[in-house]
Amino acid sequence: MMDVLLNHRTIRKYTNQSIDDALLNEILNAGTRASTTGNMQVYSIVVTRDEEMKEKLAPTHFGQPVFKNAPLSLTFCADFNRFNKWCRQRNAEPGYDNFQSFVAAFIDALLVAQNVCVAAESKGLGVCYLGTVTYNADKIIDILRLPKGVVPVATVTLGWPDENPEQVERLPLEAVVHQETYKDYSEKDIDRLYAEKEDLEANKQFVAENSKETLAQVFTDIRYTKANNEHFSKVYLDVLKKQGFLK
Length: 247
Description:
Layout: H1 2-6, H2 21-31, E1 43-48, H3 51-57, H4 65-69, E2 72-79, H5 81-89, H6 99-122, E3 126-130, H7 137-144, E4 150-159, H8 173-176, H9 187-199, H10 201-209, H11 215-223, H12 226-242
Antiparallel strand pairs: 1-2, 2-4, 3-4
Helix pairs in contact: 2-6
């Protein structure tokens, strides 16, 4: 299992080989063994295999080829709809129409998603997280017919790898681990911790291709801009209101 985790690669190209139901169910079952808030399992997973559904969902993922190329995708949802119905059918009034409950369900869904990814990779499958879900959650809700109390939080594509890309770099452990209390970063710390990342030829090329001075500018000015962040924040907050998690 350590080898699976340490050798993770994002796979964006898959073969045409399908994933049979028995294998998929084995992987999903492993996913459901993830930790969950109060053992409530306030999440749901929507499986997409159908080509027509892929066509409908593709624009919500900005037409990324990895979505159409994959034999299937899994949309992980924060889901209090099922739990609320169970409560009411057992003469218990749920009080989960609030942001705290959404956060609990959000965490549940992501824990399951990561379990599924590790299980899939242990079987030789490739995975790719799609962060576009929160950008277009309103449209995904309509396409997947998600009822009130259900919000999509992540989509993962699954398939048999048709590539073996290099691993993407990670910051050194000292950049992300703090002992006992948080130790803030000095300017020298930042220079040292990001030096290897900035010195990679692929990242230098990334900077040049985008006509920027630094790698940080690629993130702030092109990839994740303030304007886009504010726009999609509003979209997602509106979704949370519509789906019953915010007043």
